[in-house]
Amino acid sequence: MKRLIILLTLAVAALAGCATLDERQRVWIFQPSDRSWWRGEEAAAGMKDVWIDFQSSETGDAVRLHGLWAEHPDFSTKPGAPVLLYLHGARFNVVGSAFRARRMQDLGFSVLAVDYRGFGKSTATLPSESLAYEDARAAWEWLGRQYPDRPRYIFGHSLGGAIAIDLAAAVADESGTLVEGTFTSIPDVVSSYQWGWLPVGPLITQRFEAVERVSRIGSPLLVVHGSEDRTIVPALGRRLYEAAAGPKRFELVEGGTHHNTNSVGQPQYRAALAELFGLVPQGTPDLASRF
Questions:
Q1: In angstroms, rounded to a whole number, what is the distance separating the alpha carbons of residues 90 and 206?
Q2: What is the dihedral of CA 241, 165, 103, 224, to 10 degrees?
Q3: 110-114/83-87 β-pairing
Q4: DSSP the chain
Q5: Kind of pairing, strands 176-180 and 221-226?
Q6: Are 63 and 124 in contact (CB under 8 A)?
Q7: Of 83, 91, 107, 115, which is the most buried if we count CB atoms within 10 A?
Q8: CA–CA separation, 244 vs 52, rounded Å?
Q9: Taking 70 as the threshold, does the pLDDT of residue 281 lie above it?
Q10: What is the rounded CA–CA span in Å between residue 83 and residue 152?
Q11: Reported pTM
Q12: What is the pLDDT of residue 204?
């Protein structure tokens, strides 16, 4: 994402006044594709395909989202076992997020991970900020219809964290929100890079102003960031946390990067889930260890 944001910084200036400015930003920020992370298919083995159909109020078109469902072993025996909506970041499809989904499963959740429009097997169209928000809301409502009596949580990584915050600020039935490697806004991310001094902020159309929405979240919020994250600097995660109204918790994972914080920080995740959300998984098998 860092390289693409740098390109965004340079190209926004070059394309100012061009009719394709918004479209190009959508391409650079989302990098939509059907590509997966290395060994993603192996991590996704055993997950169930889920299809979510709805009519878009944004475009008027019929939309189909593809998702993966990873049920926790305790799901059928514990009526209060939680479910979690996983919202991924840019560039790779939902299969590429199977590693993190498995780790969240390790923490006691049954996980629904979804692709936005433009990714993987979901409806093929260029995603945008507003469309991604709508997709997340549709997946959230589907999860509620399928499991109405289960506590539901929202998780987002990187760009998905900004989408998760928008969703959590808009709904009132989430039990908690978790974000990892997430930022305050796209203009702030651009400003944190080498060419951030360029005055392109007002030209950015896909802004993802999570910092303006986070105070409206009505459930506990966990913000996790890796100390060695060079894509989204930890200071942005800290500022996002500080803007939240609470209850809240910030976890800085020492040695964590933008890609491995979820793995390196599992012990901190467990402690935070227990203290902030009261979730203490018992006898959870290490589902993600083989990956």
A1: 13
A2: -10
A3: parallel
A4: -HHHHHHHHHHHHHHTT-TTHHHHHHHHHH---S---TTHHHHHTTPEEEEEEEE-TTTS-EEEEEEEEE--TTTTT-TT--EEEEE--SSS-GGGGHHHHHHHHHTT-EEEEEPPTTSTTS--S---HHHHHHHHHHHHHHHHHH-TTS-EEEEEETHHHHHHHHHHHH-S--SEEEEES--S-HHHHHHTSTTTTSS-GGG-S----HHHHGGG--S-EEEEEETT-SSS-HHHHHHHHHHS-SSEEEEEETT--TTTHHHHTHHHHHHHIIIII-----S---TTTT-
A5: parallel
A6: no
A7: 115
A8: 31
A9: no
A10: 5
A11: 0.91
A12: 87
* pLDDT tens track for 167-177: 999 999 999 99
Q: What is the mean pLDDT of residues 236-264?
A: 97
| β partners of residue 177 | 154, 221
Distance of alpha carbon 121 from alpha carbon 44, whole angstroms: 15
Q: pLDDT tens-digit profile of 120-177? A: 999 999 999 999 999 999 999 999 999 999 999 999 999 999 999 999 999 999 999 9
pLDDT of res. 5? 52
Going from the C-alpha of 4 to that of each of 23, 55, 164, 243, 258, the distances in angstroms are 14, 31, 22, 27, 15
pLDDT, tens only, 246-255: 899 999 999 9
* pLDDT the model gives residue 280: 81
> What is the rounded CA–CA span in Å between residue 61 and residue 79?
37
For strand 48-55 and strand 62-70, is the pairing parallel, antiparallel, or unpaired? antiparallel
**287 has pLDDT over 70:** no
